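Consider the tokenized backbone below.
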């Protein structure tokens, strides 16, 4: 947050997708320091409480799947498919009528999830691995099998398939996210997505904007 000049005192709440450590690192200290409520699914909140990451002194609220107003935004959760207690994605509706879809850590995109993010102005979507890099890489077989399963992660190809559906329904900005350091490259994910979108008539920087959320770099601020 400091890297992009964001003031944590202006945050109204923290929304968690699931309880895996790469998605909750720092949440305990951060939410205690700034006295912020934590929203997630009932299953995720229970998992965090059992691990001592959330305690009775913190405000934790199960999401309302019909949507909820928080900090001037209207947030609508939807379920994803991952090896976690009860994982979620989110659609954030801004006061000026824009919509942002967030979907990472899912083995596939269900009809429900696709319906939720369809029509969003910007979609932040997992493009975790290149299938060939994963299959020929050093990961043990059980881990490869898990990643490729329906409770694993979206490959570049999986992501591309979703993008081609979304561009025809009005999405004009895509951010490729949650790239594996070992089994993907930003250039691979980017080029794969651009090629897939071109096949359905999408021209980059004319019909849509595409960027990659690289693991180690601070992110630019996207203005809708």
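A designed sequence for it:
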């Amino acid at each position: 947050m400091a890297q992009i000049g964001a003031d944590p005192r202006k945050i109204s709440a923290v929304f968690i997708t699931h309880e895996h450590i790469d998605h909750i690192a720092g949440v305990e200290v951060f939410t205690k320091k700034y006295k912020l409520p934590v929203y997630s699914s009932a299953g995720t909140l229970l998992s965090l409480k059992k691990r001592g990451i959330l305690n009775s002194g913190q405000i934790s609220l199960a999401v309302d799947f019909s949507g909820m107003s928080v900090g001037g935004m209207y947030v609508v959760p939807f379920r994803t498919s991952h090896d976690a207690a009860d994982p979620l994605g989110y659609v954030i509706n801004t006061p000026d009528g824009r919509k942002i879809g967030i979907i990472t850590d899912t083995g596939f995109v269900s009809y429900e999830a696709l319906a939720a993010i369809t029509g969003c102005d910007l979609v932040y979507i997992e493009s975790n691995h290149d299938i060939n890099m994963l299959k020929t890489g050093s990961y043990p077989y059980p881990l490869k099998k898990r990643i490729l399963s329906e409770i694993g992660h979206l490959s570049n190809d999986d992501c591309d398939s979703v993008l081609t559906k979304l561009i025809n329904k009005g999405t004009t900005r895509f951010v490729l996210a949650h790239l594996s350091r070992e089994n993907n490259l930003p250039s691979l994910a980017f080029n794969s997505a651009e090629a897939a979108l071109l096949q359905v008539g999408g021209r980059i920087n004319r019909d849509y904007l595409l960027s990659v959320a690289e693991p180690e770099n601070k992110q630019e601020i996207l203005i809708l």
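The CA atoms of residues 113 and 153 lie 14 Å apart.
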